[in-house]
Each structure stands twice: as C-alpha cells, then as structure tokens.
Amino acid sequence: MLQQDKNPSKSAMVHQCHQRAIHLTQIFTDKKLQDMNKLLVISAHSADFVWRSGGTIAKSVEQGAETLVVCLSFGERGESGELWKVDPNRSEESVKVIRKVQAQQAADIFGTPIQFLDWGDYPMLISDERIAQLTKIIGDFEPMVILTHTAKDPFNPDHPLAYQATERARLLSCGAGVASAFKNIDPPAWYSFEPHQPEICDFKPDTYIDISSVFDKKIAAMNCMGAQKYLVEYYTELGGRRANHARRISGKKEVKFAEAFQSHLPRVTNSIF
User: Fold this and answer.
1) Per-position pLDDT tens, the chain of length 273
2) pLDDT digit string (tens) for 15-67?
3) Where are the beta strands (DSSP E) in 105-188?
4) Does any domain span residue 13?
5) Quick one: which of 214, 169, 209 has its CA closest to 188?
6) In whole angstroms, what is the distance from residue 225 CA to residue 234 CA?
7) DSSP H or E stretch at residue 213
8) 3-state secondary structure (DSSP) of residue 252
9) Residue 74, helix vs strand vs coil
C-alpha cells in the first residue's frame, strides 16, 4: 500500500516546479523552431518579390516563419513605365514615393516586414559599401533560406547585379574569415526565383512551392503594383502553369497554383526521404 505524502505543500511545490520546467522547455522549443524558419527575399526592384515569390512569402508567414523582404531599389527608372506614361515630366523622387507605397501595401498583404535600400536602378551600382550593408542585413537576420534573382537575365541589367550582390554578401556572412570583419552565421540555403523569360536566363527549376492556399493574397498584392499592372495577367497564368508541372511531378492533384525556384547548393540531410 502506497504511503500518502505527509507534506502536501512539498508535493505541490514539486508539481509546480515540474510544470514550470515543461513550460520553459516548450518556450525554448518554440523559439528554436521559430529561429530555424527564417526566409529572406532580396529583390532588385520594389515589385520583383511580388511577381516571383509573393505566394511563397505568404505561405511561409502562414506556416509561422519569420520573413523579411529587402528591396535594393524602387525601380524608379526602368520598372515604372505606367507612371512615366501618365506624367513624363514627373521626378524620380516622386516615382520612388509611389513605388514604396505600392510595395509596402503588397508586403502588408503578405504579412512580411520590408526594407528599402534605394541603390538606384538602370543601372544599379554595386559598391563595397553596399555589399557590406547587405552582408550586415543577412548577418543580423540569420535566414535559413535566401531567395533572389538568377545570375543571367539578358533583358534586365539589374537582376544579375542583385544576384551577384546576394552571392557575395551571403558568402561574407557565412564564410570563414576574420571574426571582426563580419558576423558569421550558418550558411543559408539559396535559391533563384523564376525570371520573366526563364528559357533565356538558364533557369532550370528544381523546387515547386504549392501556393494554392494563399494565391488570393498574391493576386491582391499584384494588383497593388499599378506601375506594372500589365504583369498581373502573366503571373496569374504562370502560377497555374507551374501548378500543372507540380501535379505531374508529384501526383498531388490539389495543387492549383505554384511558384518555381532553382537551388544553387546541394541539400544536406540525415535522410534521403
């Protein structure tokens, strides 16, 4: 026969300590998982992230990940044709204001923070100081995954430069170097999102993200981009076409819309599954 605890207050204290330990363990586990799932999107212009990875951003937020979008420029010169048609005499600064508002509205729909660096466009100029700026952003955020442009884009002078800047800054943030120069982080996975002309940009997708559950958010965000409204139809159609590819590859008939990406590094896992 079991003896009753003659000191109920001691038993209660032990129980409270046990419950507190479980609670602290859960907090630590939740924080660890949250720290692991961080997505950084580096966009040459203020709308690129919407067209090419908006669904993936929204899906990541929906899944509880921490996200950050960094726009290297506003696209005020080469990516704002509709605004210049309305008023050819407007200033570049006035275009920047409009593009910033549009991008912020899109980011709010996705539920992601956004940062603007104002590096200029057409042409975008990449200096050592700007590489250091981007390296610091990567080091401070410590992403698990980085999305950016392709290395090649014959129709856009800035997209390959954004790729080069990301490649260099990522390497500096996680490479073995002088500890006092840059903060070193675990190497993030690194993908290119789909360019507008994939066939001539050497884009070979190896990853498809099912964005069906958040495609309404992508549509809403694309419609914020009044300076490039002619692209909404194209990227809506592309989402359906990439979903068709995803269904054929996976057999998952529920995929209605998808986004495509190309990885730049091998995966390292403890299982083939």
Assistant:
1) 445 555 555 555 444 544 444 443 343 334 333 456 999 999 999 999 999 999 999 999 999 999 999 999 999 988 887 888 889 999 999 999 999 999 999 999 999 999 999 999 999 999 999 999 999 999 999 999 999 999 999 999 999 999 999 999 999 998 766 555 667 899 999 999 999 999 999 999 999 999 999 999 999 999 999 888 889 999 999 999 999 999 999 999 999 999 999 999 998 989 988
2) 454 444 444 334 333 433 345 699 999 999 999 999 999 999 999 999 999 99
3) 114-116, 145-148
4) no
5) 169
6) 13
7) none
8) coil
9) coil
Residue 134 domain-assigned (yes or no) = yes
Q: What phi-psi label fits residue 167: left (phi over 0), alpha (psi between -120 and 50 degrees) or beta? A: alpha
Domain range for 252 is 36-263
Closest CA to 216 of 187, 192, 247, 239: 239
Q: Which two tokens stand for residue 79?
A: 């990516």
Asked whether residue 105 is assigned to any structural domain, the reply reads yes
What are residue 81's phi and psi, to 5 degrees? -55, -40
Q: In angstroms, rounded to a whole number, what is the distance separating the alpha carbons of residues 162 and 52?
A: 14
Domain count, the chain: 1
- Tokens, residue 130: 């700007």
CATH number at residue 147: 3.40.50.10320
How far is the first Cα of the chain from the last one, in angstroms, to the nearest whole number? 51
- For the residues of 142-159, what is the DSSP string, one character each? --SEEEE--S--TT-SSH
Yes or no: say if 142 and 38 are a contact pair by the CB < 8 Å rule. yes
Which pairs count as long-range contacts for 228-237, CB under 8 Å and 24+ apart, including other chains? Answer: 228/47, 228/79, 228/80, 228/81, 228/82, 229/82, 230/82, 231/47, 231/51, 234/196, 235/51
Instruction: Write the CA distances from 186 to 31, 158, 230, 255, integer angstroms.
Output: 17, 28, 40, 32
